[in-house]
Amino acid sequence: MTGSLPAPGVDVAAARRLVRIGLRLSGLGLAALAGVYVLAIRFTPTEASQGLAQKIFYLHVPAAWTALLIFSLVGIVSALYLWLHDPRLDLFASASAEVGVMFSAVMLTTGPIWAKPIWGTWWQWEPRLTLTLFLFFLYVGYLSLRSAVHDPAERARFSAVVAILGLVLVPFVHLSVYLWRTIHPMPIVLKPSAPSLPPEMLRTLLIGFAATLLFYWGLVTVRYGLGLVTRAREAEAMRNA
Amino acid sequence: MGDAIGLALAIAAKDIRAELRSRTAILSALVFAALVLVVLNFSRDPTRLSSADLAPSALWITFAFAAMTALNRAFTTERENAALDGLLLAPVPREALYLGKLLANLAFVGVIEAVSLPLFIVFFNVSMGGALPGVLAVAALGTVGFVAVGTVFSAMAVRTRFAELMLPVLLLPFMLPPLIGAVQVTAALLEGRPLSAVGGWLRLLAVYDVVFVTLCTLIFPAVVNE
Fold first, then answer.
1. Which of A148, A153, A168 sits opposite B211 (nearest CB)?
2. Interface test with B, best of A134, A176, A181 (most B CBs within 10 A)
3. A4, part of any domain
4. pTM value?
């Protein structure tokens, strides 16, 4: 049962404070996202061939980057958990996984909405789309596994194993779907040469990325704080039982 | 090292012996595999899609589903009467325990595949020609990796609620790369193309097997250690 319970006396008041800070950060993140849209529509040039449809780019791409960043983070933090057995790492991993599922859902819904007018099809089985869909499924599985295991230490170990194996699986999925076929636009920002995006568009994109990161940080802080409160209550219930 | 392999073989032998005595799981898994083949044949419009076009996918969907039923039972028997606790108390390295379970699962899945392959040839009217050794090789390459992951997941799934549902939800994403590769290779082989035409896929399957057998052996202790 090592690592199953928080150190005696989780500071519930501090955890509640964390939740309040997280809520404020999330509100700020949401406002920033709204600001990004004002910036994207009013102050960023419209793309010549795609017109207004391209504006979804400023939400789609930051959401995708944030989701991928979160899932890599969950994999790394889970490996640290199996090494250090610190329940806070597990708490952070699970809070992040929830937010990651949300961002990949945003990416997976904005993608088809953008693809329909531009590619003429809702869905394409190509590497990056398939990879995000796959990560979405993997982490829905991760979350349902967590809800199906009763013992906190066991829950933490099992979900860490899934996250680590999932991180290793990513290149295999990418490569196998890539070998299968692709029509997604080639990377225009994250590539070896300089980004081929006009500077105003790049600026809006990066601000959008910062806004999604801020939103992520806020939501994770809320979930982490709530997780601490839940642990304290669980420990209390076990003591009283 | 030699000790660990001996222990792994002993654990695998125990599982296989137990299965041979009851034969219930393997028989139902075989009937299940045959039924999947039959259902897949009727899932197509025969005037639009010839059975040869569907054959490679049908073969691998059957393998994947049948393997899933086999993996589901891998640790349920250990759970009954707390047999796993006995195994864990024995002075056996966790890695050897894992390799033993993996070998037993591979034997189990291998038998199912060996029986479904002739059924597949008959039902889908496949002329194997010289493709048989290649198909057997890709069956082995494609199976080892996901059975390795499935062995870890089935050890976890038996400890959860809804175990029978939890395993496929966790394992199917991991079946994606081997399944894509194995279907492509099988299709090429059945069309009479040489193995060299699908070298990239074969390398991908081999790397997948090596990576996941190693990683799962290392990570398995985290699943069973309290």
1. A168
2. A176
3. no
4. 0.86
Q: Is the dihedral of CA A164, A4, A90, B174 positive or negative?
A: positive
- Residue B27 pLDDT: 87
Determine the residue of chain B that is closest to A173 in CA distance: B177
Q: What is the dihedral of CA A125, A126, A129, A134, to 10 degrees?
A: 70
Per-residue pLDDT, A2: 41
A146 with A140: CB under 8 angstroms? no
What confidence category does residue A52 fall into, taking pLDDT thresholds of 50, 70 and 90?
A: confident
Of A148, A157, A179, the CB nearest to B166: A148
Residue % of chain B over a pLDDT of 70:
99
- ipTM for the complex? 0.88
How many pairs of residues across A and B have Cβ atoms under 8 Å apart?
A: 81
Whether the CA torsion B162, B165, B168, B169 is positive or negative: it is negative
Give dist(CA A75, CA B47) in Å, integer: 48
Determine, for residues B170 and A179 on separate chains, whether the beta-carbon distance falls below 8 Å.
no
Would residue A63 count as lying in a domain? yes
Going by C-alpha positions, the residue among B118, B120, B110 that lies closest to residue B29 is: B110
Query: Could you tell me if residue A190 is inside a domain?
Result: no
Are the beta carbons of B37 and B58 closer than 8 angstroms? yes
Chain B residues lying within 8 Å of A141, measured CB to CB? 169-170, 173
Residue B46's alpha-carbon distances to A109, A136, B51, B53, in angstroms, are 35, 35, 7, 11
Q: How far is CA A188 from CA A71, A204, A205, B96, in A?
A: 22, 14, 12, 48
Residue numbers of the domain that contains A32: 12-44+53-185+196-240
Q: Amino acid letter at A177?
A: V
